[in-house]
Amino acid sequence: MNAAFCESDDRLESILVVDDNPTNLQLLAGMLIDRGYKVRFAPGGELALQSCCRASQI
Predict the structure, then answer these.
(1) Residue 33, pLDDT score
(2) Residue 23's Cα: distance from chain center in Å?
(3) Using one digit for the tens of pLDDT, what is the confidence trace for 2-50?
(4) Contact of 50 with 39, CB cutoff 8 Å
């Protein structure tokens, strides 16, 4: 699976969607949610890295 970040949460895989274009975020998130994924967002690379670091500490 090619995702920036995945974790197990209530048996759903979580995917971190990263893009600086809000339209792209909404489009991709909608497609992934429709396929049963739990989706998290980051509007850029720096915030995505921070989100991954926080998630790995849980």
Answers:
(1) 94
(2) 15
(3) 344 444 445 578 899 999 999 999 999 999 999 999 999 899 999 899 8
(4) no
Using CA atoms of 8, 55, 14, 26 in order, give the dihedral in degrees to the nearest 10: 170
Residues 42 and 25: their CA atoms lie apart, in Å, by 9
Whole-model pTM: value is 0.65
For residues 9 and 38, is the Cβ–Cβ distance under 8 A?
yes
Length of the chain: 58
Torsion of CA 30, 50, 7, 24, to 10 degrees: 20
Residue with tokens 């690379």: 45
